[in-house]
From TrEMBL:
Keyword entries, A-Z: Cell membrane, Membrane, Sugar transport, Transmembrane, Transmembrane helix, Transport
Gene: LOC113208623
UniProt lineage: Eukaryota, Metazoa, Ecdysozoa, Arthropoda, Hexapoda
Gene Ontology terms: cellular component: plasma membrane
Pfam families: Sugar_tr
Membrane topology label: Multi-pass membrane protein
GO function terms (MF aspect): transmembrane transporter activity
Transmembrane portions of the chain: 21-45, 57-77, 89-109, 142-168, 180-198, 204-225, 295-318, 333-352, 359-383, 389-413, 425-445, 451-472
Keyword ATP-binding applies: no
Subcellular location, principal: membrane
Tagged with keyword Transcription regulation: no
Ranges for domain Major facilitator superfamily (MFS) profile: 19-480
Protein name per the record: Facilitated trehalose transporter Tret1
Location in the cell: Cell membrane
Length: 509
């Protein structure tokens, strides 16, 4: 039945603001699956290597999700407007679940688990130092299945970064938008930690099955969540928007009508700014004015710096990096420590951007990351010079400072430096850059490491972080506590206005 025929009452068992937290947590189950896919190559890489897979093949296993993510972003971006945020999110879970289930193919996991078991037995008995090799094209069969599963996962990952922030931004009220908007990186980092922690404890098949459980659970739970009020209003369905508000807000608070009126005004203003509708905005509008060009430089520059700081390579090859660095901790244990630190950094980032401001966090983030990578490079250049725990501390500190500033900043600033009618297009451009650069870093990290040496590679990443400090100083204004129209006016060349309180209409769009 339609929303006109079957309005959604506010759930009595979820008082006050609880439904907004529930909707945010449920939609971010697919962000958790995104994190699992990011961390999976670090766990699976040594197992594939034990079967005789080359470094070139392993680089494709790590990198294939990113070009596939471009397809996902291009697919799900338009679908959010045509089918709605809710149905699009449900569709995103399909390739995520399918990708993990492909990794459960019987021939794949049976050969893999058997090979790993033999390798472990050989290591214990010290009877063989040779990798376990499969016959009759077994390695090729496994590799093709892995690449297919990873590519399908990548399509879903592209959809996650489109749908999750859009859905959360449109279902939560102004006072909760900053806090609940930070849940996506939090869940992504939790997924990475989940895979790192389980990777050394369970077999190939069990790991894939445990990862597949999250998109499947999402499909069951998110089916009960409402469509966003903003999407309903953009389609002229005021009754449907009210029904959604009645589920998400507690009507006893008495502010549902007022918030709905504000949202209606915001939708009308967004359509007017866009020239009368969503379909009139095109790629030329991103470079049509001085302000939009400046905003594009900020967002694309931060995304480029984020990837050239080495984060994708470090997450994909964490186990191998610790092994090469001569850490006294087992590589799988060290990876879990780093992922746990990253999760703690994401928790801290939830409130720091509003309390300290964007620029102080960005300066501290990139400066600290440069120092950590420089010291990590020294561990590779002069092995044995420093204690074995130093690489773990360096990478943990690097990950912590990434999670606090460099990681969330591009997505936060994208909403603040672009006017409402350009944000969807800017999001697609930003995701295109993100997935392209992540692919390049993941694919060619091994090649770069062989050419420059591990030390040279990490020093190069440190140099990019240092360049990031200069870029931030020259291009990015402080946006804390300022309305979007003030920020946009400054980027257009006007004098920076005095900060003023952000209105409800400003924060909604």
């Amino acid at each position: 039945m339609t929303s006109h025929e079957q309005p959604r009452p506010h759930p009595a068992w979820l008082p006050g603001k609880s439904p907004q937290f529930v909707a945010t947590i449920v939609v971010n189950l697919i962000a958790f699956s995104f994190g699992c896919a990011c961390g999976w190559p670090s766990v699976a890489g040594p197992r594939l290597s034990a079967l005789g897979c080359s470094e070139e093949a392993l680089s494709w296993v790590a990198a294939v999700v990113w070009p596939a993510g471009l397809v996902g972003a291009a697919l799900f971006g338009p679908l959010t407007e045509r089918l709605g945020r809710r149905l699009s999110a449900l569709l995103v879970a399909v390739p995520l679940a399918a990708g993990w289930l492909i990794l459960l193919l019987p021939q794949l996991w049976r050969d893999m688990d058997a090979a790993v078991a033999v390798e472990a037995e050989d290591a214990v008995n010290a009877t063989s130092a040779e990798p376990v090799m499969l016959e009759d094209g077994g390695v090729d069969n496994i590799l093709m299945s892995v690449l297919a599963g990873r590519a399908i996962l990548g399509v879903g990952m592209g959809g996650v970064l489109i749908v999750c922030p859009m859905y959360v931004g449109e279902v939560v009220e102004d006072a909760l938008r900053g806090q609940l908007g930070s849940y996506m990186p939090l869940f992504i980092n939790a997924g990475i930690l989940y895979v790192y922690a389980l990777g050394a404890q369970v077999g190939w098949s069990a790991l894939a099955l445990l990862c597949a459980a999250f998109p499947v659970a999402f499909l069951a739970l998110f089916f009960c969540m409402p469509e966003t009020p903003m999407y309903m209003l953009s389609r002229g369905d005021e009754r449907g928007a009210m029904d959604s508000f009645m589920w998400l807000r507690d009507p006893r608070r008495g502010d549902v009508d007022g918030e709905l009126s504000t949202l209606k005004a915001s939708v009308k203003r967004s359509d007017a700014d866009g020239g009368g509708g969503h379909g009139t905005v095109n790629a030329r509008d991103l470079v049509a004015t001085r302000g939009s060009r400046h905003a594009l430089v900020i967002v694309l520059g931060l995304l480029a710096l984020q990837q050239f700081s080495g984060i994708t390579a470090i997450l994909n090859y964490a186990n191998s990096i610790f092994d090469m660095a001569g850490s006294t901790l087992r590589p799988d244990v060290a990876s879990v420590v780093v992922a746990a630190v990253q999760l703690l950094g994401s928790v801290a980032a939830c409130g720091l951007a509003d309390s300290l401001g964007r620029l102080p966090l960005l300066f501290a983030s990139y400066g600290s990351m440069a120092a950590a990578l420089g010291l990590l490079g020294a561990c590779f250049r002069w092995p044995g010079l420093m204690p074995g725990w130093v690489p773990v501390v360096c990478l943990s500190f690097y990950i912590l400072m990434y999670a606090v500033g460099s990681g969330p900043a591009p997505f936060l600033l994208l909403v603040e430096v672009f006017p409402a009618h350009l944000r969807a297009l800017a999001s697609q451009a930003g995701l295109g850059a993100l997935f392209t650069l992540a692919f390049l870093v993941a694919k060619f990290f091994s090649t770069l490491s062989n050419a420059l040496g591990a030390a040279g590679c990490f020093w190069l990443f440190a140099g990019c972080c240092t360049a990031g400090v200069v870029f931030i100083r020259l291009t990015i204004p402080e946006t804390k506590g300022r309305a979007v129209d003030d920020i946009v006016a400054q980027l257009e060349g006007g004098a920076p206005p005095a900060p003023r309180k952000v209105s409800k209409a400003d924060s909604i769009v």
